[in-house]
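Section 5.1 Outputs to date
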Amino acid sequence: MAKLYFLLLYCLSSVESLFAQPTFQGEIRYAVHYRKKSASVDLTNISLYPAKQDRLIFKDGDWILHMDTAKYYEYSYYNRHFNRQYWKLKYSDTLAYMSAADRGGDTQDSLISTRVIHRTDTILGRICDRFVLRTKSMTLSLSFDPNIPIDPAWFAEAKLNYYDVVYGAMRSVYLKMVWETANFVVVSIATKIERRLVLQSEFPAIDKAPTRALPSY
């Protein structure tokens, strides 16, 4: 009886530690949609196309985004320890990576403005705020629930793709993304949120896989 009581206490404490965690750990699934703005636009030029579902696994600032049927990519992976973003291509076992310490891009990627608009969306029953980032070439709108918190310090040194700006403002993971350029719009919206323990084995073993550095763009 004493052993059973101890086991119950241990299980309850494990559940409480999971669901009372101050930062999000778990998995989010998204449905992905594409819209071109003119008949001449070739959607196959979008690296994500024609993925219809994404699956994000997030833990302590590390994340991996699996793309179900993207033309070129199996997944994209950000490793906080090395401050690098990795890409697994379908035709290669080598992980290509780029340092996230550099902003990269050209004048078309220069930041014009950012803002947060409160209580703009309801996604899966959650009232969300919206973060809007504009550059010369695109507008990125990310809807997020502040009750799914992350630590923005995890991305303070991640300049690539404006991660430091995005996560610094949201302090959360996105539940909806609208990526709009002059030619197309990509919308990704959460269909399931699962707070759960994430195992290290769910991320690539980058110390064992062949890797190749990409030049800064």
